[in-house]
Design brief:
- The chain has 74 residues and is mainly α.
- It has one domain (2-72).
- The protein contains 3 helices and 2 strands.
- It has helices at residues 2-7, 24-50, 57-72, and strands at residues 12-13, 16-17.
- The protein has a two-stranded antiparallel sheet with strand order 1-2.
- A hairpin with a 2-residue loop joins β1 (12-13) and β2 (16-17).
- The protein is flat.
- The two termini are 25 Å apart.
- 0% of the residues are buried.
């Protein structure tokens, strides 16, 4: 689906022409970058603002999300 959408776009970026099939990697890279930014920047700032030293953590939040997703689509 993403490749079909990418085929309708102008593939030129600056002097480069990006193939439609490789555009999906930008989605993957953005998720990876956001996970790092969230873990290293957002969470410490939130802890500093709320004076909270305990947190359920990234793994716990992921498990909670998975459980809610499973319950939602049962």
């Amino acid at each position: 689906m993403f490749v079909l959408q990418a085929n309708t776009l102008d593939p030129r970026m600056g002097g480069f022409k990006i193939p439609a099939a490789s555009l999906s990697i930008f989605d993957t890279i953005s998720v990876i970058v956001w996970a790092v930014v969230y873990d290293r920047v957002v969470v410490p700032m939130a802890r500093r603002w709320t004076d909270s030293r305990s947190s359920s953590g990234w793994a716990s939040a992921s498990v909670d999300s998975l459980c809610l997703f499973t319950i939602r689509y049962m």
